[in-house]
Write a structure and sequence with these properties.
- The chain is α+β, with helices and mostly antiparallel strands.
- The protein is 37% helix and 23% strand.
- It is built from 18 helices and 24 strands.
- The chain has a seven-stranded mixed β-sheet with strand order 8-7-20-21-22-19-23. The chain has a five-stranded parallel β-sheet with strand order 14-2-1-18-24. A three-stranded antiparallel β-sheet has the order 5-13-6.
- Helix 2 crosses helix 18.
- The longest helix is centred in the last third of the chain and has 24 residues.
- The N terminus is likely disordered.
Length: 509
């Protein structure tokens, strides 16, 4: 086989979600910028690209079945949108969606203004909180005077927050927000892999509350001083021009988030990438070569074909990657990463059948409430320009790491339990109305769990994988402190860059 500096660099990307698509595009752009020839093949086992990004287009409007937005403050997705010409498609949350609600004693209560991950930032917010007893409020405010008690290593989110704020703050407020993001239990989730900024706040400011206050003040100052080149705000939407993001914490795309996937697909095809959709990789074999030659990989697919590649990006879930690598140690470490299953339940009502909706984007449900739904988004308020005014759309989330049975239940059972919870929590609004359609989307084993010690284990895993499989990179939500679209984009781009840099070093040596 020829050396890396000669001929075409052959790269395979396994996995056609946002991570894999981003890796493929990054690799092509890096090679072209360096004047090198590259051939990229992307394999996706299902019949569609995009992974957990899936948009449903109906007469009523645009509805997301998976991820429904991304954080505007995260640069990887903003940069990619600009590159693909999607910055004019940015849509901010509606004006009615500023309020979030929390379930306490099976009733909805508005979160106070000025919160960070659900925790009131200011003393006044804690003192006026309807969720805490007087004793709980006093205990939470002890954070202002409590010395740094953090251990040298990792700890669970729950252990950290209980130490700083007490059990009530965690059980009644923080657990619902933080566990909801990852679908796991706060007593299992790693602080350093999920919210490492809390540790920094404790050590830098001597108080998490003071750290959150400083962070919020800095964010507000940056928002008011940023020179917006041009933005249009109308009917609850903000459209950016690509110079700076519109003033909304969360953004989506006017035609749905799957527009991002379609734009990536189109760009890759235009650049000559070979997209093998509906083709499942069955095995991956590192080929034996002499010491003077560069190792390469043979990728075999279930249809019986096989191709050889200089490098591989595996942008598949950790348990799929484990089966492909078939290495005792590395595969065992990959299989040790737990996953939670979740489902989304989209309920469509006729607006005329419902009473006035509460102001807000939706609500979250603490585990202590022992309800099926973990959160509900009021889509008609959050994304008003995406839906007809004649429709009220709600999206309920079900499934937790410790209670995944509901995800595998039949449709009728899921519908029954979700509607029972909504009748309790939103009875005055829903009344006797029934949804005219319900769409259930299951996401089995979709949410990697960042258990305590996750960051250190992943570092060891990636180091071992790099040593054992030169020219191969692992990418995806399982390996980084983030499960959102921007995090997956960044993972894919970093994987492609590492392989490109390795090739460059080999060519120069």
């Amino acid at each position: 086989m020829s050396t890396p500096s000669a001929g075409i660099w052959r790269l395979a990307v396994v996995g056609g979600g946002v991570t894999g698509l981003s890796a493929a595009l990054q690799a092509i752009e890096l090679a072209e910028a360096a004047g090198q020839r590259i051939a990229v093949t992307l394999y996706e086992s299902t019949r569609r690209l995009g992974g957990k990004v899936q948009t449903l287009h109906r007469d009523e409007g645009t509805l997301e079945l998976g991820a429904d937005s991304f954080l505007a403050r995260k640069d990887p997705v903003m940069r990619l949108c600009r590159k693909l010409g999607l910055d004019r498609e940015w849509v901010g949350t509606g004006p009615q969606a500023k309020q979030t609600w929390l379930v306490a004693d099976r009733q909805l209560h508005p979160f106070p203004s000025g919160t960070y991950m659900g925790i009131p930032v200011w003393e006044e917010g804690i003192l006026s909180s309807p969720f805490l007893s007087e004793q709980g409020k006093r205990r939470a405010l002890m954070d202002l005077e409590m010395p740094d008690g953090s251990p040298d290593g990792d700890e669970s989110i729950r252990a950290f927050l209980v130490r700083r704020f007490g059990d009530e703050m965690v059980d009644r407020i923080a657990d619902a927000v933080m566990s909801g993001i990852y679908g796991g239990r706060s007593e299992d989730l790693s602080l350093l892999a999920t919210f490492p900024e809390f540790r920094v706040m404790e050590r830098t400011h001597g108080s998490v509350l003071r750290g959150m206050q400083a962070r919020l003040a800095n964010a507000q100052a940056a928002a008011t001083s940023a020179p917006l080149s041009r933005s249009i705000a109308m009917q609850g939407k903000a459209v950016g021009t690509g110079v700076v993001p519109p003033a909304s914490v969360f953004l989506t795309l006017r035609s749905g988030l799957e527009t991002l996937v379609e734009a990536l697909e189109s760009r890759l095809i235009a650049l000559g990438a070979d997209l093998q959709v509906g083709v499942k990789v069955s095995s991956l074999e590192r080929q034996s070569v002499s010491l003077r030659e560069t190792p390469y990989y043979r990728v075999s697919t279930e249809d019986g074909s096989a191709r050889d590649y200089d490098a591989i990006v595996l942008a598949t879930p950790a348990y799929v990657t484990a089966d492909l690598l078939e290495h005792p140690e590395v595969s065992a470490q990959l299989r040790a990463i737990r996953y939670a299953s979740v489902a989304t339940v989209l309920l469509l009502y006729r607006a005329k059948d419902l009473a006035s909706m509460p102001q807000g984007s939706g609500f979250v449900v603490p585990r202590r409430e022992q309800m099926t739904v973990t959160a509900v988004t009021w889509l008609s308020a959050k994304w008003p320009t995406s839906l007809s005014d004649e429709v009220i759309a709600l999206r309920a989330f079900v499934g937790r790491s410790e209670a995944a049975d509901i995800v595998s239940a039949d449709d009728d059972e899921i519908k029954r339990q979700v509607q029972e919870d909504l009748a309790v929590l939103m009875g005055d609004t829903i009344g006797e109305a029934r949804p005219y359609d319900i769409v259930i989307t299951r996401w089995p084993h979709a949410m990697p769990q960042y258990d305590v010690g996750h960051r250190e284990r992943v570092q060891a895993l990636l180091g071992r994988a790099t040593q054992t499989f030169p020219g191969l990179a692992l990418a995806g939500a399982a390996y980084a402190g983030g499960v959102g679209i921007p995090d997956c984009i960044e993972q894919g781009e970093q994987a492609a860059k590492r392989l490109f840099d390795e090739r460059t070093v080999r060519a120069d040596s």
